[in-house]
Amino acid sequence: HKVIVSGLGYIGLPTASLIATKGFEVRGVDVSEHIVDTINQGKIHIYEPDLDVLVRSAVNSGNLTASLEPSAGDIFIIAVPTPIKNDHTSDIHYIEQAVTKIAPYLAPGNLIILESTSPVTTTEKIGDWLRALRPDLSIPSFTLADDDDNEERIFLAHCPERVLPGRILKELVDNTRVVGGVDPASTRVAMDFYRSFVNGEILPTNSRTAEMTKLTENAFRDVNIAFANELSLIADQLEIDVWELIGLANHHPRVNVLQPGPGVGGHCIAVDPWFIVEAAPDKAKLIRQAREVNLYKTDYVLGRIHALAGTMYQPKVACLGLSFKADIDDFRESPALDIVTRLDERLFSKVLVVEPHCQRLPAGLLNREGFELVDLDEALAAAQMVVVLVNHKAFYAVAPEALQGKTVLDTRGVWRFLEPGQIAKS
Ligand code: SAJ
């Protein structure tokens, strides 16, 4: 079978390379010439453990090629971004662009799979666009009735990707997959495809439920993190150590509070709950509130840093971590990056940024007066104030003596050894 994968990012590239090594002939399509060239050289443009090895072997085997243009094939996977706009409504134009591009190449019997996390009914919209673009093809509409066994038609399904950045290659194969066709025949055909390379269970449903399943998972996590972040605000006010508090509460057999932090980042959890809010604004009250709590937590941390700096005379501040979570190089929607970017430089004589996962400061920080990317030891030796924004492994190894006499704001609870005199608020 020949598979066309549209979008060669964090999901499309690992998927394309994995199935190429399983014997499919794969054409990866992207709008960026740089990405296409990089992959055709057997190299990668993103960091994910072991992905470089997989892409190299897929390209060397001849089964994976990258291109700016799609071609004819049997299976078309769409894995492009679905961001939100400033007003928190969804932006699905990348999907529409990808569909418009593949439309001329479609033929009877083809299977189209939307893997991008999408608002409910997006898979049906693909059907609507295709009916307009290719009136010659038989494109299914949403139905739960199982009555179309004509093989000369198009099959259309949603199969949301749920891999965790940092563990993508393992989870691509082992995770349970939810497969929802716009009609039952589409579900069946898409399930057969996933069976060929997934070890996890494959669970059938319809496209709307599949879309909502993915949004539900990420909204669940967002609501639970919001609970932890709200606790951290309350604990600060009541002068309680939130890490001790959560540790104690989690000893209860039916309680599992997540960890507070400087806010919720990443391209999924900070985005997907808005798709639910957009679809049912009057009903999704808790989900909206959780988003707002998590967004507020970032402003709160920034306010605390400024307030602490205001009590000192232009300290050198060390900011530990920029990525959206521990041990990855992904800065999308990162609250840590947001906080460092919004620091008021007038309050500091220097802003020393420590991020073991980048070689130079991200564009937004590059030309800021007094901002420097330095290594951990250098930052700790120089700074009077230390702010932990990401719980990278390397930060746990810091010895208590290295923090002696410094003002510390640990938003991730990395340094539990701090004395009460040293500030260790969430
Ligand atoms: N975070 C906390 N406290 C916690 C856990 C996480 O503050 O206790 C923060 C992280 O620091 C980060 C953000 O939340 O800023 C999100 O991190 P994450 O590890 O929870 O999730 P992602 O965004 O890396 O991946 C999620 C996963 N979804 C779920 O766990 C339900 C993943 O399985 C999805 O595939 C992915 O979203 C996606 O692509 O949708």
TrEMBL record:
<dbReference type="Pfam" id="PF03721">
    <property type="entry name" value="UDPG_MGDP_dh_N"/>
</dbReference>
<protein>
    <submittedName>
        <fullName>UDP-N-acetyl-D-mannosamine dehydrogenase</fullName>
        <ecNumber>1.1.1.336</ecNumber>
    </submittedName>
</protein>
<dbReference type="GO" id="GO:0089714">
    <property type="term" value="F:UDP-N-acetyl-D-mannosamine dehydrogenase activity"/>
</dbReference>
<dbReference type="InterPro" id="IPR017476">
    <property type="entry name" value="UDP-Glc/GDP-Man"/>
</dbReference>
<comment type="similarity">
    <text>Belongs to the UDP-glucose/GDP-mannose dehydrogenase family.</text>
</comment>
<dbReference type="GO" id="GO:0051287">
    <property type="term" value="F:NAD binding"/>
</dbReference>
<dbReference type="GO" id="GO:0016628">
    <property type="term" value="F:oxidoreductase activity, acting on the CH-CH group of donors, NAD or NADP as acceptor"/>
</dbReference>
<dbReference type="InterPro" id="IPR014026">
    <property type="entry name" value="UDP-Glc/GDP-Man_DH_dimer"/>
</dbReference>
<dbReference type="InterPro" id="IPR028359">
    <property type="entry name" value="UDP_ManNAc/GlcNAc_DH"/>
</dbReference>
<keyword id="KW-0560">Oxidoreductase</keyword>
<keyword id="KW-0520">NAD</keyword>
<dbReference type="GO" id="GO:0000271">
    <property type="term" value="P:polysaccharide biosynthetic process"/>
</dbReference>
<dbReference type="Pfam" id="PF03720">
    <property type="entry name" value="UDPG_MGDP_dh_C"/>
</dbReference>
<feature type="domain" description="UDP-glucose/GDP-mannose dehydrogenase C-terminal">
    <location>
        <begin position="318"/>
        <end position="417"/>
    </location>
</feature>
<dbReference type="InterPro" id="IPR008927">
    <property type="entry name" value="6-PGluconate_DH-like_C_sf"/>
</dbReference>
<dbReference type="InterPro" id="IPR014027">
    <property type="entry name" value="UDP-Glc/GDP-Man_DH_C"/>
</dbReference>
<dbReference type="InterPro" id="IPR036291">
    <property type="entry name" value="NAD(P)-bd_dom_sf"/>
</dbReference>
<dbReference type="InterPro" id="IPR036220">
    <property type="entry name" value="UDP-Glc/GDP-Man_DH_C_sf"/>
</dbReference>
<dbReference type="InterPro" id="IPR001732">
    <property type="entry name" value="UDP-Glc/GDP-Man_DH_N"/>
</dbReference>
<dbReference type="Pfam" id="PF00984">
    <property type="entry name" value="UDPG_MGDP_dh"/>
</dbReference>
